[in-house]
Design brief:
single chain, 450 residues, alpha/beta, six-stranded mixed beta sheet, 16 helices, 12 strands, globular
Amino acid sequence: MTPPPPLLLALMLALTGAQATVDLRTAAAMAAGLCKTRPTDLVFIVDSSRSVRPSEFEQVKVFLAKVIEGLDVGPNATRVGVVNYASRVKNEVSLKTHRTKAALIKAVTKVEPLSTGTMTGLAIQFALNVAFSENEGARAKSPDISKVAIIVTDGRPQDNVKDVAQRARDAGIEIFAIGVGRVDMSTLKQMASEPLDEHVDYVESYSVIEKLTKKFQEAFCACSNSATDVVFLIDGSKSVRPENFELVKKWINQIVDKLDVSDSKAHVGLVQYSSLVRQEFPLGRHNNKKDLKEAVKKMAYMERGTMTGQALRYLTDKSFSVGHGARPGVSKVGIVFTDGRSQDYIGDAAKKAKEMGFKMYAVGVGNAVEDELKEIASEPKGEHYFYTADFKAMTQIAKKLQINICQEEDPCECDSLVKFQKKVEEALQALTKKIENMSKRIALLENKIV
């Protein structure tokens, strides 16, 4: 269609612009508040001892409400409980009690401080035995369900926390510890999960505790809408050693646990290399976590050399091809693990992978060469390559790497942006149709005038 002249375009925009504005406003409104959180049983453990003033306790409740506001609350998504403690423990909200965000927030506003001592260990024991029990609404232990406790306290516990916190962590509960004011930092560290720098937070007063809201909203967000093809490229050379190779397999499964594996979401492939390259399984063969993790556990150690360049060429030429299960138009992520210097040239293959649009992560342990890791990794390098001297420290890398796979800009925005873009496209298509119809009507009028 020939573009209309400026005056005609102005007329058409005047006639149709109001409706287009409404459509775009609707799209923007739909983009708000659509964060999808991975299924989680979340329990807040809140100190309301006498050192917490009533006005300060109100600020804690505002913090809880704002974190809840950013969650995908529901029986099949995130369930929330609240434990209130001082010298005694009170179960304010069970995981089974409220199934909607509004009901949860209303319940939080009604919590009153207990205003006695500070028995933090007792509160953790209560959470372990009661709050996280199936009778109170917790779901059976599963790699698909996260168990999280957020402890907020402002003082030194009057009982032991170290042993009971360890039991809670051993039971699969991830613990975040938030300290306020004159809190004892050493006990926060005794309670929190590893790595401590991600699980221990301190604020100088209750008036600024809200600044932690965004951190916890993002901690529970997942890119559930994203279809992704992920291929692990694993160094199985003799320098790794059998016992460490078992740790590598556990590390792979840690990352798998955090992915939304299904027919329509994340697909995972696995390639091992040494002097040769061997595909363990292609993309799309295992589309549920149970089968996928079992296949990873069965991977046999190859030993021999370290031909990382050859392995990268296999990744670019075969692993991400349609013939090996890759899906057209789906984002591609390569995760390369190695423990030593490559015995062949990696430059061309590493460059080609990035030119083809693959997001490349490089993970090195022990004698891995950091310059090679950086050459493999996508930009920005600091977010795409990781190094640790010890195989036992790989769990920390697994956590960081999982977040980065999910996160493009803001992990809470992925569903919102897709839906927003779709609504904008629909609004623009509607506007284009209106312009075309208006052009035809004006052309008819011009013919009648002539």
